[in-house]
Amino acid sequence: MEFLFGLLSVVLVIVSVLLIILVLMQKTKGAEIGAVFGSGAAKAVLGASAATILTKITYWLGGIFLFLVLTLSYLSVKIAKSNTVIENIPSQQQTENKK
């Protein structure tokens, strides 16, 4: 389980760096004051025909990023629950401590 956690963490770092690079490479749209209120966001979310390949790759990387973060969070909880100190103590030693 820890190996999978480490592997997914490395993949998350790679996806994050690629996502940052792709966002910085994209040409800004709607730089006027209307963009502040989200006028350009609806066009981007609804899949305007002007979407470039960079935009599509950015959406996919964003989805992969979200999936990896949720998976790592789930694995983190599983690992934390399985590595408790109390579970590692043999049962005989636990009964001696109670006396």
From TrEMBL:
Protein task: Involved in protein export. Participates in an early event of protein translocation.
Swiss-Prot/TrEMBL GO biological process terms: intracellular protein transmembrane transport; protein secretion; protein transport by the Sec complex
Topological category with respect to the lipid bilayer: Multi-pass membrane protein
Transmembrane regions: 6-24, 31-51, 57-77
NCBIfam families, alphabetized: secG (TIGR00810)
One Gene Ontology term, aspect cellular component: plasma membrane
Sample GO molecular function, one term: protein-transporting ATPase activity
Protein name: Protein-export membrane protein SecG
Lineage: Bacteria, Pseudomonadati, Aquificota, Aquificia, Aquificales
Keywords: Cell membrane, Membrane, Protein transport, Translocation, Transmembrane, Transmembrane helix, Transport
InterPro entries in UniProt: SecG
Compartments where located: Cell membrane
Domain of life: Bacteria
Family: Belongs to the SecG family.
One Pfam short name: SecG
